[in-house]
Specification:
By secondary structure, this protein is of the alpha+beta class. It is built from 2 helices and 11 strands.
């Protein structure tokens, strides 16, 4: 599946020591501007306490996998997470989070799994390689890029490229978090 067509540059590649036995990996540290086609998805959206986010995301991934399996459908790409709100500055903080997976046009929703779409259009995209304890660095790149004259058009989403919902989600089979590749997509006007 092609997620986007380049319309501009801005990404730089550098070697980064990850700390895993001196392993050197390549990590995108800039923003690439892409034009994306609208992408049909099925997703689960809910508001949960941030303290329960990992559990809620895991349950949503399993619900999506079951939904696709019951219909004989396969994902059209890796799953995504989109935060419609995220306020981590309060002790009782909650977030409106959507966990979804791209699908072919004929897959419908049912129950808490609903059919939707990731928007098409221009987007700034950056990549984070590694565990999510440093994911805020990628968001800082997006924020700095937006502050440099670009305007967000809705919430960003994270694409979890190490998860394949063609099979049942099993965190024990996922690669080491140091090898996770997460793409952050920020739609812009």
């Amino acid at each position: 599946m092609s997620r986007g067509l380049p319309v501009g540059a801005g990404a730089a590649r550098i070697g980064v020591t990850t700390g895993v036995q001196g392993k050197v990996t390549i990590m995108t540290v800039g923003i690439e501007v892409l034009h994306r086609r609208p992408q049909p998805v099925v997703s689960v959206r809910q508001t949960v306490p941030i303290a329960e986010l990992t559990r809620a995301q895991g349950e949503s991934l399993h619900a999506l996998w079951r939904h696709l399996s019951e219909r004989g459908a396969v994902p059209a790409g890796p799953p995504f997470v989109r935060y419609h709100t995220f306020d981590d500055f309060k002790a009782d903080a909650r977030t409106d989070v959507e966990v979804g997976v791209p699908v072919q046009a004929e897959v419908t929703g049912a129950g808490r799994v609903v059919r939707g779409e990731l928007p098409g259009g221009t987007a700034g995209v950056t990549v984070h390689l590694g565990a999510h304890d440093r994911l805020q660095d990628a968001y800082a790149r997006i924020d700095a890029w937006l502050a440099d004259g670009h305007k967000a058009d809705g919430p960003a989403w994270e694409v979890y490229e190490w998860i394949d919902l063609a099979g049942e989600p099993d965190p024990s089979s996922w690669p080491d978090p140091a090898d996770w590749r997460t793409e952050i997509v920020q739609p812009i006007l």
